[in-house]
Write a structure and sequence with these properties.
With 444 residues, the protein is α/β, with parallel strands linked by helices. The protein has a single domain, classed as Metallo-beta-lactamase, Chain A, CATH 3.60.15. It has 13 helices and 13 strands.
C-alpha cells in the first residue's frame, strides 16, 4: 500500500471537505448507502455524492418504500440529478439489483463519473485460462465465479421442479440464497457502461479511482486481496477438487432437466404418499430430505465464496473515517488484518473509525474479533466521539437460530448496541422513514 495521503501531510492548497452525510436506505435484505461529501468553503466543488451499492432480495412489506425505484427516485432528488461515483462492492443481487430495471435507468441518468468494483469483475479477465501463472489464475477465478452462478441457477430449477419433495424451510432458504447468487446480468452490464469506460477494478492497496471526484479525501482499498496477495479468498475451492463447480453445474443441469430417463415408466413421489410402494415409504422421504440439505450446503458455499470478492473501502474525510465492508467475510479480512506486509499501518488506520457499515448484514463471520477489538471509539458511555454503526438487514432470511448462525447475529448486535451508536434499518418503518441520515463534521 502506498504511503497514506492523510490530512496531516496534505498540502494546505488542497480542497478541504467540511462535513460528510451518510444516508442509509431501508431496502429490506440488501445494502444501499449514499455518501455525500460537502465542500462548504468551495462552491465550485459543492457537494459530491457517492452511491455505495443498491440492491435487495426482500423489500420491506410496509410503506412508504415499495421498490428500489422508490429509493432511486429519492437518490435523484437528494443529489439534484447528479451522482459523482458508484461503488458496487460485489455481484450479489442484494447489492447490485438496483442497477438494473427502472431503478437502474434512473441511476444511469444521474451520469456517475466513476464506477468502482472488485478486481474479480474485470471484463478483460480471460475466463478460459488454465495455466498456473498469475494472470491465468485471475482468469480461472473469474471462470469459477461464473460457474458458481450456473450452479445457483441449477439448484433453483431443481428445487422448483420438486416443490413438494423438499421441506418448505429448506426450500425457502435455497430459493433466497440461490436467487441472490444469480449473475444479475443487466445490472452488471449497466455498471460496465454507466461511467463511459471510467471503471476501476481494484484490490488491496490500489488507488480506488474515487479520488478523481472526491478532492481532499483519501480512500484506502483494504480488500479483496488479489490472488497473488492471498489465496484465502479461494478457501472454498481449496477444500474441493479443482473442477468442483463445473461438476456441480453439470449435475444440477441434469437433475433439473425436464427429460425423463424412463419416459414410459410410472411415477411415484413423496407428494403422493398414499401411492408409494410400501418398501419405499421410509426411504424416499429421507432421500429427498438429504438432497434438500445438499442443495442448501451448495448454495451456502456459493454465497460465502462470492462474499469473499467484496470490496472493503475506508474513506478519510478530514479527521473522520468511514468503513464500508460490503459482505466481506473472514477470508477476505485475513489479508489486511494479519498477512499484508504493511498490516501495522492498516491496523492503526482502523483504530479510530467513526462510522462502520457492519459487514454482511450482521453475520457472525463478517466482523472479525480482531477488527472489533481494534475500534478504540467503542464506548459503553454515550459521547460525541462514540463510534456509529449501521446494519442494513432483515431478520429471518439467513442462517439458523439453533445453530447460532442467524443473520443478524444476536451476539454481535448486542455488542453493537452496548458500545456504539447503533442503527438497524429494520427500525425504519414510520411515514417517509425509509432512510436514516447522519452528519459528521470533518474536523471535529
Amino acid at each position: 500500500m502506498k504511503p497514506c495521503d492523510t490530512p496531516a501531510n496534505r498540502p494546505d492548497t488542497a480542497p478541504r471537505p467540511s462535513k460528510t452525510t451518510v444516508r442509509s436506505y431501508q431496502v429490506g435484505f440488501g445494502d444501499c448507502f449514499l455518501l455525500s461529501v460537502h465542500y462548504d468553503d468551495n462552491p465550485d466543488i459543492g457537494t459530491r455524492h457517492i452511491l455505495i451499492d443498491c440492491g435487495s432480495t426482500a423489500m420491506p412489506k410496509y410503506k412508504p418504500v415499495r421498490s428500489l425505484r422508490d429509493v432511486a427516485d429519492n437518490i435523484r432528488s437528494v443529489t439534484g440529478g447528479k451522482l459523482h461515483g458508484v461503488v458496487a462492492t460485489h455481484r450479489h443481487k442484494d447489492h447490485i439489483g438496483g442497477f438494473a430495471g427502472a431503478a437502474g435507468d434512473i441511476i444511469m441518468a444521474l451520469q456517475p463519473e466513476v464506477v468502482v468494483q472488485p478486481w474479480t469483475e474485470d471484463p478483460t479477465a480471460q475466463v478460459d485460462a488454465r495455466a498456473p501463472v498469475p494472470a491465468s489464475r485471475k482468469g480461472l477465478h473469474a471462470a469459477t465465479l461464473m460457474n458458481m452462478q450456473k450452479v445457483a441457477d441449477c439448484a433453483l430449477q431443481e428445487v422448483r421442479s420438486r416443490k413438494g419433495a423438499i421441506a418448505s424451510g429448506v426450500r425457502d432458504q435455497i430459493e433466497f440464497i440461490g436467487d441472490d447468487n444469480l449473475s444479475n446480468k443487466d445490472a452488471v452490464e449497466n455498471l460496465a457502461a454507466m461511467a463511459n469506460g471510467n471503471n476501476h477494478y481494484v484490490h488491496y492497496g490500489m488507488t480506488s479511482g474515487l479520488e478523481e471526484v472526491l478532492p481532499g479525501v483519501t480512500i484506502h482499498v483494504l480488500g479483496p486481496p488479489s490472488l497473488e496477495q492471498s489465496d484465502q479468498v479461494l478457501s472454498q475451492r481449496s477444500r474441493d477438487a479443482d473442477e468442483f463447480w463445473h461438476f456441480q453445474a453439470a449435475a444440477g443441469r441434469s437433475a433439473a432437466s425436464q427429460k425423463r430417463l424412463f419416459p414410459k415408466a410410472d411415477i411415484c413421489s413423496t407428494r403422493q404418499k398414499g401411492r408409494l410402494p410400501i418398501e419405499t415409504r421410509w426411504f424416499l422421504p429421507r432421500l429427498d430430505r438429504i438432497r434438500g440439505e445438499q442443495l442448501l450446503q451448495i448454495v451456502r458455499s456459493l454465497d460465502h465464496a462470492m462474499n469473499n470478492t467484496s470490496l472493503i473501502l475506508l474513506f478519510e474525510v478530514g479527521r473522520r473515517k468511514f468503513l464500508f465492508a460490503g459482505d466481506a467475510q473472514i477470508e477476505n479480512w485475513e489479508y489486511c488484518l494479519k498477512t499484508a506486509s504493511d498490516r501495522q499501518s492498516v491496523l492503526r488506520l482502523l483504530e479510530d473509525v467513526d462510522f462502520y457499515k457492519v459487514g454482511h448484514h450482521g453475520s457472525l463471520n463478517a466482523t472479525p474479533k480482531t477488527l472489533w477489538n481494534l475500534f478504540r471509539k467503542r464506548n459503553k458511555t454515550d459521547s460525541p466521539e462514540r463510534m456509529s454503526t449501521v446494519v442494513s438487514t432483515m431478520g429471518g432470511k439467513h442462517g439458523s437460530d439453533s445453530r447460532g448462525t442467524e443473520v443478524p447475529r444476536r451476539k454481535l448486535t448486542d455488542a453493537l448496541k452496548e458500545e456504539t451508536d447503533y442503527l438497524t434499518t429494520q427500525t425504519l418503518r414510520g411515514k417517509d422513514a425509509f432512510f436514516h441520515q447522519q452528519e459528521f463534521d470533518a474536523w471535529v
